[in-house]
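[job 4471] stage=fold_predict status=RUNNING
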Amino acid sequence: MSQLFSPFDLGPLHLKNRIVIAPMCQYSAEHGNATDWHLIHLGHLALSGAGLLILEATAVTPEGRISPTDLGLWNEANEHALGEVLRKVRQHSAMPIAIQLSHAGRKASSRTPWEGGQLIAPDDGGWETLAPSAIPHLTHEAPPHALDVSGLERIQQAFVDAALRARRIGIDAIELHAAHGYLLHQFLSPISNQRTDEYGGSLENRMRFPLAVFDAVRAALPTSMALGMRLSGTDWVDGGWDAAQSVAFGHALKARGCHFMHVSSAGISPLQQIPLGPNYQVPLAEQVKREVGLPTIAVGLVTEPEQAEAIIASGRADLVAMARAMLFDPRWPWHAAAKLGAQVEAPPQYWRSQPRGMNQLFGDVKIGQR
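[job 4471] inference complete, writing structure tokens
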């Protein structure tokens, strides 16, 4: 039997297979509100047969958006708009849906990727960004505002409020975003965090705010709701965050009741040197899984069914996540099941699409007509 298509429990959440659709920003919201684009995009991915769909990085405050068109969950209008999209999607799919809650920190106020992705100055419609320290992401940019304790408390509460909104609209799991150079990652990395108070300096101090956010969200949610963390396993910069610190962070999360870790990398500095290639981030996930023992999601240039199967079968990770590969081929799980001799769920409207000779691909389904 294919291990990729075997079931797995992500804490209290049961998944039918090990394929995860990773968060992918769509830059298509209006004032944080989900739009018809999200209905089309998510509806189409929810029919893919994956085990779990994680919604894109969703800002917990307006200034926490990467771009002006980021999805948000900071007010009732955002909650209603996303809730309506999910209500319609769920009429046709029972796939579990998670959400990634985020604050972009100093990487906020950016143009969309198709507009170049660079910082938008306040005079051009952007806003002042926030960070652990007044250090810009790029040297020519205006420095962000260094957060004080009251600012940290406000953002922590914003994560809690967004998590409660997510629960109210029926989200099945929450992933807190501490990767890719955004605010929680900025606190973890000594490259972006040069504070001299209790939130900077030692590893214990740099972990303090991300762990406080986790604790506050965990306390606000029932234990029946899965809660995990996305992290960059390394900055790929000498003197930055690395795999050993990721393991220490993982142990601290495990002690607090974290259900999973989703291991990516990079994003904190333009000096990063990333050794791109198939499975390039899998060793980071493997180390976290081996040394921490939490359910672990691997991601990064996993594109082929046999490749994903080998990661799971060899025990390098518990689940495999895909982003760009899933955008390119939203029926990737169907095609993987066909290659690996497995079965996958599909809506009845599509049962007739089973390739010739694969009449069990979608399970024991029957169709007929006069």
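[job 4471] summary: The two ends are 36 Å apart (CA to CA).
[job 4471] exit 0
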